[in-house]
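Contributing new complexes? Match this layout with fe (ii) ion.
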Amino acid sequence: MSREKIPDGPLADSRSMLDVHAMFKAEFLLVPALIAGVPPGDQQRTDVVADHVQFMCAILHAHHTLEDECLWPKLTNRGAEEVVRISHLMEGHHADIARILDQLNNELRAWRGSAGSLHGPALLQTVKQLLPALLEHMSAEESQALPVIEKHVTADEWQQMAEAGTRHVSQEEFVLAVGMITCAKLESSAHMPLSPFEQQSLQVLVPYAERVHGRDNHVGIKHWLDR
Ligand SMILES: [Fe+2]
Ligand SMILES: [Fe+2]
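Output block (do not edit by hand):
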């Protein structure tokens, strides 16, 4: 079978994926406590938490859509049998997670509609289904897919995928997502230099994160504020 040729040029450096995954991991692990912490009948707090969870689900779905569009077809068309297997594994994980996200969004609507009084246990159950699927997927993507991406996808193609992110979310959501990723980066390396856009995105994130998580939650933001 003839395989698609890998375009000339430097190959992708996939390390930025680790920061994105660290952000998803940090935020989704906080979701059960956020939901459980809403006093039943408190519509205002229900809306804050529901908006946040809905936003996290939307950017996770956008992240997977970008990978489905920009990465897996290239691995399938360019790689050897083992690379194709990894690519199909990633697509399968994404499809499983998409089904859980659909269910979660439906339950979130019902929970919000009852001001956090009803559907909480079902919602928490679905979040608890999502977490292991997501963690397993990100871990497999890092250990199996990223090494082959770095051999089959060019740096230009990787960059195009990053830039295409703005097509799937609003500008406001994009800035917030960059702020969360920057925060995750700071939590692993507190003194890393930040670009002006990353600094601006953290400024947007601070009031948002305080509203959702309270003042003392984001270590990365605190490192940055303390500089
Ligand atoms: Fe990913
Ligand atoms: Fe993925």
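Reviewers usually confirm one structural detail per submission. For this one: The pocket of fe (ii) ion (ligand 2) is lined by residues 64, 67, 90, 94, 137, 141 (CB under 6 Å).
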